[in-house]
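User: Sequence in, structure out. Go.
Assistant: Echoing your sequence, followed by the structure tokens.
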Amino acid sequence: MTADADRALAAHLGASLDLQLEWNCYQKLQNDPRITPFGRWLRATSMDEIPQLFNVLIGDMSLVGHRPITESELPRYRHYGDELMNHKPGLTGLSQVSGRSLLTYRSRKAHDIYFFRNFSWSLYFYILFKTISVVITKKGAG
């Protein structure tokens, strides 16, 4: 990301109602001005996730789970936030194999909640193996 990323985002969003609507819906921007060209490549190839393998190895994360939730996001999860915070976030998850950046923020939350409400080892391994094809095809990367 660029230096002063938060300020760059605020300025970018302030310049366009369409961008504000996109941000409100996805909590992401298709053409995020904060991401450098090298950063775009890292995200498209999912190489930006590799450092998180260290977090899996030391036990702070799971291979499969929800995306890490920031403090500012917790109110959006309502009572599910506390439930999800009792589980380790994952390197991959149901939303990553179900559309990644193509999903709305609300849909990504619903996928995270669904995974824990309907946990099974078959779902866990389905997500793990589906991740391989999603990364190779770059489907929904962005």
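User: And one key feature?
Assistant: The beta strands are 62-64, 90-92.
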